[in-house]
């Protein structure tokens, strides 16, 4: 699919401001969209929206289809009569600069249960009908997900691999018994998904009305402790006990000398092919309801993936295995049409990966923070771009631009300043201008770089087991000066001009 020249901002909704400990889908997200509109931006990129578990990573979700209940806005529930003003009183204020996930969960979930109880007793027939229709429309994934989450509650959060054998193996009698025993909890989890998708749909519609497209994100792999792995064991490489025989990761690279051992189960692509890639087709359908453009994380894994024997402590002793290749994308195109896909093609990329990307005309990614350490032929330097790529100052996995620059050697710092023709004090906006002025079809900067924040605002450090996904901006950071600077830069390079009033062309 051809994209049009445009620019925007990377910000995951958890990083929005708000008084209840985590960004959510209330007035603050609409104000952020207004900020994008006022500063002439046309793209808003997010991370995956799924429900997160241990480690809080949106790339390790309990479901590839469900939404994260923590993003449900409480003020909206109050406005709908499901919560009271008293319900939202805080004994102690939340920190406004970072997310304390444990405290947020303990505060929000009892309120969700109150809202659910009030909905059951006081909602109109129209509202109950909308809820029922949502459950019917999403039955294919919703039934498995809500049973899975209810079982996790029942088994005190233990992973499905440690559940009683009959339900671990989804024996029919056990499934039927638990569906009856846990029916109230199942209904509660369905209700939370209904609330999430009701709120998110309105947010996306508002963005589109403002001429802004949402870039969503599909992680190639799913978490082992997920509804997807538990309910679809036949599409993964599991042994007879349903333990993974090999798991996902990447070999040593820029981010880690021992590689990254992600631990995700690996797909049995032959089995998926026999089924017409049905699970993946359904996955694309749900993301295309959430977003206008789709970033495919770890695109190279569709050509070949790094398989690490289960039980290894690092990713060093893995091997490359053949992925789904062009056959998968041909089937997807045949069933869904030509999709608006961005290929995350970072890391160790081979000619075969580039050929697969180019065969389907997917734009790849260019990261400016990777551009200055290997000389003038570095593919991330703007003078080496072709038009069909997306340029970023950095991503959620990078340090902030200011943090990155401060940790460079003196020689590399000098080269950055010379290449960009800037002074060190202007490094963040210098990198943003390099992105906006390039020939890349899209240019995106994390909000942290637009705000010129240091490493304390970093979103994620790959390989670190804690301390990630916590950063939030404060409302007063989006100043008129920031809006004017971003507007001026966007107008200077005529980004977004040709489709200012067009959404989803």
TrEMBL record:
GO MF terms held by the record: 4-alpha-glucanotransferase activity
Residues spanning the membrane: none
Keyword Glycosyltransferase: yes
SUPFAM superfamilies: (Trans)glycosidases
InterPro entries referenced in this protein's UniProt entry, alphabetically: GH (IPR017853), Glyco_hydro_77 (IPR003385)
Reactions it catalyzes: Transfers a segment of a (1->4)-alpha-D-glucan to a new position in an acceptor, which may be glucose or a (1->4)-alpha-D-glucan
Parts forming coiled coils: none
Keywords on record: Carbohydrate metabolism, Glycosyltransferase, Transferase
EC number annotated for this UniProt entry: 2.4.1.25
Example GO biological process: carbohydrate metabolic process
Top-level taxon in the UniProt lineage: Bacteria
A UniProt-annotated Pfam family: Glyco_hydro_77
PANTHER family on file: 4-ALPHA-GLUCANOTRANSFERASE DPE1, CHLOROPLASTIC/AMYLOPLASTIC (PTHR32438), 4-ALPHA-GLUCANOTRANSFERASE DPE1, CHLOROPLASTIC_AMYLOPLASTIC (PTHR32438:SF5)
Family from the record: Belongs to the disproportionating enzyme family.
NCBIfam families from the UniProt entry: malQ, PRK14508.1-2, PRK14508.1-3
Protein name: 4-alpha-glucanotransferase
Species of the source: Orenia metallireducens
High-level lineage: Bacteria, Bacillati, Bacillota, Clostridia, Halanaerobiales
